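Q: How would the structure tokens look for this protein?
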Amino acid sequence: MKVIYEKEISAIKDWLQRTNAQLSTGALPAFLQTDCWKIQNELQTISTNIQYEYPFYGHELLEIKNILFSAPQPPYGMMLLNSAAFGELFIIIKHISSEPIDTRVWQDIHPRIIAVSKGLFCDGHFAAAGEAAIKEVETRMRELFKEGKPNSPIPKDAAGLIGALLSDNGFYQFCDTSEISGANFRKGVKSIFEGAFMAYRNPSMHANLTCSQREAFERIVQASQMMGILTSGEVRI
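A: Here is the predicted structure in token form.
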């Protein structure tokens, strides 16, 4: 998993390990002011960049940054370590470095979407992850069309697939349309599919499509919902 604060997290980890080794001998380490400022700047950078994934940690790192070192001590101006703050920092950095992207949110995402998007997302390729999720939905629609009409040519675009599968007369059934609520639900689902593919799989704007981490995950959640519909019903001809 690649993150933009990889350099800072690596530097902090190395410092934590060296300092912890000193503490384990019973010594109380002292540090030059310039070294302390460097550590504090690195903590500031990490805090800024983890606000989306770990807002609590982001706040805590700012607090730790301010209390990690004592005021310079005479005669050499060395700064002493706050061991309690050091211990909290050690645990936080260990967690963040092992899981820079909070993967718990993937527990409720459809397995097929996880298979194509999670790796890209966790490596920071957010636009590609969102695109892969929508592509996988289109792949599933092609599978369903082939299952229902094996001797017919598969529509070239998503609009044709959506019409064949999800329109009022479509041959993919995923809800009871005998009641008005079910019929409306089917129409709503069709509109969701049409909107998603118009926004995210439009060939004329595909090359310029970019998105933030949050926007990418919203697309992934949307694709997961769509995939759930496409794997919970059945083909009826």
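The chain has two domains: 6-100, 106-235.

Residues 126-148 form the longest helix (23 residues).

Upvote if useful.
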